[in-house]
Amino acid sequence: MYGNGNQPIIVLKEGTNRAKDKEAQFNNIDAAKAIADAVRSTLGPKGMDKMLVNSIGDVVITNDGVTILKELDVTHPAAKMVIEVAKTQDNECGDGTTTSVILSGELLKQSEELINANVHPTIITNGYNMAAAKAAEILDDISVDATDDKMLRLVADTSLTGKDVGDAADQEMLSKLVVEAVKTVAEDGRVDTDNIRMTKKIGGVIGDTTLMKGLIIDKELVHSRMPAQVKNAKIALFNCGLEVKKTEIDAQIQINDAARMNDFLAEEEAGMKKLVDHIKSCGATVVFTTKAMDELIQHYLTKAGIMGFRRLKESDIMALAKATGGTVVSDVKDLVPENLGTAGLVEEKKVGDDNMCFVTECPNAKAVTMFIRGGTEHVIEEVERALNDAIRTVGITLEDGKVCAGAGAPEIELETRLLKYAATVGGREQLAIEKFAKAMECIPWTLAENAGLDPIDVIIKLKAAHENKKNGKYFGVSLEDGEPFDALKAKVIEPLRVKKQAVSSAAEVANMILRIDDVIAARQAPPGAGAGPGAGMPPADD
Questions:
Q1: In 3-state terms, what secondary structure has residue 304?
Q2: Among this protein's residues, is 389 annotated catalytic?
Q3: For this structure, is 16 an active site residue?
Q4: What average pLDDT does the structure give for the chain?
Q5: Which of 16, 89, 165, 445 could form a disulfide with 455 if both were Cys (CB 3.0 to 4.6 A apart)?
Q6: For residue 523, what is the DSSP state?
Q7: What is the dihedral of CA 356, 357, 363, 364, to 10 degrees?
């Protein structure tokens, strides 16, 4: 900055980096494009996997967009904004994270030409907002109703396609499990996917994965002589310790007489027996607690033929309450028969090298468990990620009751209709809407590219099919031969919410980045540097 005498006026601290106008815009756009390029090759059934190795050598092998982006150690602020889009997409829909990031990068790439032609960023963002609103309308128009189990299974199938979840038979089996799990926990048309828990154990193959109408708790019996199996179990749930109560403040008891000592111990023992007698009188045959369990309590529970498990996680005890219909009690004395949960079978089984507790055959269970098996840790983790995505997509389909065709069909239809809409708008915003429409091509283009097809041929054929074929709006790209096909008839189906969220969030982040025309970055202090001169120096001697 310069004053009246053309003398520079230093406003910013020395070492501050500043980029302005087009330089700032293009830097941000390049960063967003780099993030999009990082996940582009993972899109679609033919997408490739990434191997991510962190600083301590842990390896993650995945083609899940949000997992890849979470593992990346990104410093550029604009790149971080694009990663937030993927996280939002994951939170809202569970799937479509790669799509949203690729769309964000492409929208910014398309805007470069307009910025170079001196179209003001505000005009571009106005056009993008208009296009995003129109895109939501178009997506609603091309959606179809989906409520039956068959349609839900197709949604799960599409979500699992391209993920490393075994062969076709395994995928079909997993799709059935996903739909069954979602329908079990659904209440009043809403699906809380937190009630579908994942437990994984190395061993067996992916086809050994099962769904339990109940829970698997990674705990073993507190005493080896307790019964290993209880049928028609009555379950007591505690979030308090089953032990002698200690005083709130530090206290000491002084005993001078040996007989008194025996009396004291006998009273303590009687108190614990009384607790177990109360649990037994309520009809409980299985006890779970989040806290400790005294050895004497364990002994009396064993004598009473009651199973006992201790130190459960808070989330486990709450899930047990949902699965069994029981109530978590904070004090053993408050337990009444109405608080007990029920399960057809509670048993301890050895899985691999560990004993685990299986609470199954729960009537009206509102919490279920997917028990995932596989040959290696990496396989199991990728199956868990794939199932998480499938569960979320089936859940939102059950909630919304709307789906659309997959295989790039909605994006080409959006491009076709948005170009017609742009012509009715006029003004400079028309240019931005046309660029927004053009950006939609990137999804079928990337699908074709990842399948080793010629993307230009694919896009030309798809556009022709959408213009000329009956039900052309449902035509996507076949990744086997590159020919257009009716994705709806071929059962390639995605939830409507996934597409709408991907388009709207991509438009929002592109607009936010485009409106930045000045980046002022403070110099990072080197590690160990203090606030002022002499910081970090040893103190002077007095």
A1: coil
A2: yes
A3: no
A4: 79
A5: 445
A6: P
A7: -70
